[in-house]
Design a protein that fits this description.
The chain has 467 residues and is an all-alpha fold. It is 73% helix and 1% strand.
Length: 467
């Protein structure tokens, strides 16, 4: 990957982002089995509904903080905020054994800085050319999948033979290594000329207010369509991840070994999809069509989960899970393509904030639907929940049917996303035709107005608005 660096300073590389993501999510992947145990012990009644509420608080805080973190990283640099996000995301891990109540409280509060992906994607955007960016985003997303290929299996093995305490200890050590790696070895990616030389607070309340950012997003049709697409597609995905593995065990009657194998298969296929296949698809059919293909695969996958009751159908749907994993890196590439250099953190922060909101709403929604149809996902009655649900709805996986409908709406919205921002095209065209600095760039016969400080004249988020 092409990197830009100042003389005498260690060069920032995509490899740095990949290692940070791998270590963070490998640590959390180890806790897959212990987390289910702690959930059931701490909240014996309505386990996943309570989990949804905890994740809901975390997601809402992430939604509130993501624009501010992204905007500040555009000004002060990525490294310091990458350190904060990794630290606070991993901070709850040791408390899983120290105090479960503190553990869940810290998970909820950690949402303020749990926006690692937005900072990582901005970091990658700083050091890659646009033609390489989609491949780099795919590599980062594939690393997330790779971290989950073996970590749940390792965590399950350690938990079974040595107890949950050792698993938590190993995860804590890996989290500390990740924090140390960011602090000592990760270089700053934002060029010096784009950062402030003094530490003030140059971000206005309007930039920090996520609802103000949403209003700004509404001024740019492209960003608005992308944000709605992300919300409608990631809402069911977040809910699915919160309950799916226990659903496989209790309803489809997968063994623990089969679940670990399923996770490994999906992880390996996702790596292939997000590295080799993603870059090929973007080059051949474009970013927008790649997003649509990923959404279509997600619909088919959710329909298999909703109506399927045989184990082979779950395994077949796993291949579609891998194919649908290309959606988010393709969306990130589409957003980055339209965003100016000084807006990468803001835009990626907004997308991550919406995903954070879904991370809260999705588990709560899925848990509520399971609860509504008398399907409590606990170890006490593995088959009763399935029988009750089928008797009341005729559908074994009703929440997944809701998810398929939500993603279908996302497809209908994504169809209207333009392949390229019209205003970006206009600016590029004007720049090519301009022969000196005083030449006015015109659109439809009228000069482009110079932005003023009036709130109504703020440029849309994906234009070259100054900070």
């Amino acid at each position: 990957m092409l990197v830009r660096s100042s003389h005498g300073r260690r060069r920032a590389r995509v490899t740095h982002a990949v290692i940070v993501i791998f270590l963070e999510f490998f640590a959390w992947g180890l806790l897959t089995t212990p987390m289910l145990t702690v959930l059931k012990e701490t909240f014996p009644q309505h386990t996943f509904l309570m989990n949804g509420l905890v994740q809901g608080v975390k997601g809402f805080l992430s939604f509130l903080s993501a624009p501010l973190v992204g905007a500040l990283s555009d000004i002060w640099g990525r490294k310091s905020f990458l350190l904060l996000t990794v630290f606070f995301t991993c901070a709850p891990i040791p408390f899983m054994r120290i105090s479960p109540w503190w553990y869940f409280a810290l998970i909820a509060v950690s949402g303020v800085f749990s926006v690692t992906f937005s900072v990582i994607f901005a970091y990658v955007a700083d050091i890659t050319e646009e033609r390489e960016r989609s491949t780099a985003y795919g590599l980062v997303s594939a690393t997330f999948a790779a971290s989950l290929v073996m970590s749940p299996a390792i965590g399950s093995y350690l938990s079974e033979h040595y107890g949950d305490s050792l698993v938590v200890l190993v995860a804590t050590v890996i989290a500390v290594v990740d924090i140390a790696f960011v602090f000592f070895l990760v270089p700053e990616s934002l060029p010096d000329k784009m950062r402030l030389s003094s530490y003030g607070f140059p971000v206005s309340w309007e930039q920090a207010d996520p609802f103000s950012s949403l209003r700004r997003v509404g001024n740019d049709t492209t960003v608005l369509l992308i944000c709605v697409t992300v919300f409608l597609s990631y809402l069911p995905e977040a809910g699915q991840y919160s309950s799916f593995f226990l659903y496989l065990k209790q309803v489809i009657e997968f063994s623990s070994t089969a679940i670990v194998g399923f996770i490994a298969m999906v992880g390996i296929l996702s790596i292939i999809a997000q590295t080799l296949l993603l870059s090929l698809l973007i080059r051949t059919i474009g970013k927008k069509n790649t997003v649509l293909l990923g959404l279509g695969s997600q619909i088919l996958q959710l329909l298999c989960y909703a109506f399927g009751s045989a184990k082979w159908m779950m395994w077949a749907a796993g291949t579609l899970v891998a194919m649908s994993s290309i959606t988010f890196p393709a969306v990130s590439a589409l957003v980055s393509h339209n965003a100016s250099a000084d807006q990468q953190g803001v835009v990626q922060g907004m997308i991550t904030g919406i995903r954070g909101l879904c991370n809260g709403l999705g588990p709560a929604l899925y848990g509520f639907i399971f609860y509504l149809f008398n399907m409590e996902l606990t170890d006490t009655q593995p088959v009763a929940g399935r029988q009750n649900t089928e008797q009341r709805s005729g559908i074994p996986g009703l929440p997944f049917l809701f998810g398929a409908c939500s993603v279908l709406l996302a497809v209908l919205v994504a169809i209207f996303i333009p392949d390229q921002n019209r205003l970006t095209d206009t600016k590029a065209s004007c720049a090519n035709k301009s022969t000196n600095a005083s030449t006015a760039c015109t659109q439809n016969g009228s000069p482009v107005a110079t932005p003023t400080s009036d709130g109504e004249d703020i440029e849309p988020l994906l234009q070259d608005a100054s900070m």
